[in-house]
Amino acid sequence: MVKLVFGDYLNNKIALKEQAKVLDIGCGFGNNLLPFLVRGYACYGTEVTAPMAAQTTFLLKERGFTADVREGSNRNLPFESDFFDLVLSINVIHYEGQLDYFRSALNEYKRVLKNNGHLVMFTVGPEHTIIQRAKREEPYRYRIQDYDFRDGTFFYCFEKLDNLRQCVSETFSSVETGRVTEQLMKYTLDFFVAVGQCQK
Q1: Cα Rg for the chain, rounded, in angstroms?
Q2: For the chain, what are the domain ranges?
Q3: pLDDT for 100-125, tens place per residue?
Q4: What architecture is domain 2-7+16-197?
Q5: Contacts (Cβ under 8 Å, ≥6 apart) of 137
Q6: For 43-67, what is each residue's pLDDT tens digit?
Q7: Which of 42, 68, 137, 177 is the most buried (most CB within 10 A)?
């Protein structure tokens, strides 16, 4: 993710201004926000429960950083419209489980982005061990099984990168896609990546 934002991988390079606001959806322990916090950007995050959001705020404060982390989800972001310069969605949108929810999440991402702001999104790919073990209920919809605490959860997983590009392009402009796959001992980790620009 850091390479995409600050490196030279994109044709439509992301250029954050000094006062840029960055949102990480499903920010976990806040690790994805650290590269932006150290550069002085205003950082925000969401987690699915208020206690989780408070825990992230506490962990970042222990490291000497301040971020506004709130309870929220892909389709219900607790921020005003046209607020962010960059939205990060790192391995969270596939939890929407079906196409209409996936599209609704993309529309919510666009709502909170400023005109010309960017989305950087990672989502599970078809070769990921979690998908390989899952039961395919219908095209792109998988019930997780034999993996971990997420067993029984539905993931929405595009089976081809071009399908993801087409879907994201319904909401965002200048969409670029890529793929990150690695073999980590007995697990294959496979992620599709999409970067798009918000035009309003």
Answers
A1: 16
A2: 2-7+16-197
A3: 999 999 999 999 999 999 999 999 99
A4: 3-Layer(aba) Sandwich (3.40)
A5: 143, 154
A6: 999 999 999 999 999 999 999 999 9
A7: 177
The pLDDT assigned to 119 comes to 99
Tally of CA atoms within 13 A in the half-sphere of 25 that contains its CB:
31
Instruction: Count the Cβ atoms, other than its own, within 10 Å of residue 189.
Output: 16
Walk across the sheet containing 21-25 and list its strands: 68-71, 42-47, 21-25, 84-90, 113-124, 187-197, 173-184
Mean pLDDT of 2-28: 95
Coil, strand or helix at 5:
helix
Q: Which amino acid is at 2?
A: V
pLDDT confidence tier of residue 1, bands split at 50, 70 and 90: confident
Amino acid in the structure at residue 181: T
Alpha-helical runs (H) found in 63-125: 99-112
Distance CA 40, CA 50 (A): 25
Chain centre to alpha carbon of residue 7:
18
Contact criterion met (CB below 8 Å) for 88 and 5: no
The stretch 133-159 carries a mean pLDDT of 97
Residue that the structure tokens 């969401």 belong to: 46
- Residue 63, SS3 per DSSP: coil
For the chain, the straight-line distance linking the first and the last C-alpha, in angstroms and rounded, comes to: 25
Q: Shortest CA distance to 80 belongs to which of 114, 33, 127, 49? A: 114
Give residues with Cβ within 8 angstroms of 78, minimum separation 6. Answer: 46, 70, 71, 72
pTM for the model: 0.96
